[in-house]
Amino acid sequence: VGLAITPCSMAKQTPLMVTTDTPQYCLHLLDKVSELMRLAPTAPPEVSSLSTEGQRMCGQGQTRGGIMRLRRALVLLKRQSLGP
């Protein structure tokens, strides 16, 4: 059974951001995490360690691992800003 994509259903979708595993994307994510941490009254302790580890990994050329950690930090920060 296949999934049919019609023009109508495609029009309702939001555009996706294409990302790559590059050092530039690591820096982009790190900037976003840093900005949200600065604006947040308090950040979960895990966010700081994820951010530090992500930055370290990106700096050592382990971009995928660094990106994964930075994305997780962003998710935690955004979840906190939305509240319970």
Topology:
Elements: H1 7-11, H2 23-39, H3 45-59, H4 63-82
Question: Can you characterise this structure?
Answer:
The structure is a single chain. With 84 residues, the protein is mostly helical. Helix content is 68%, strand content 0%. The longest helix has 20 residues, at 63-82. The chain is globular. The mean pLDDT is 82.
Helix content: 55-70%
Strand content: under 5%
Query: What is the straight-line distance between the termini?
Result: 39 Å
Please, what is the oligomeric state?
single chain
Total strand segments: 0
* Rg result: 16 Å
Q: Which secondary-structure class do the elements indicate?
A: mainly alpha
**What's the helix-strand series?**
HHHH
Helices, by number, come to 4
Query: For the residues shown, what is the average pLDDT?
Result: 82
Low-confidence stretches: none
The main pleated sheet reads as: none
How is this structure best summarized?
It is built from four helices and no strands. It has 84 residues and is an all-alpha fold.
Question: Which properties best describe this structure?
Answer:
mainly alpha; 4 helices
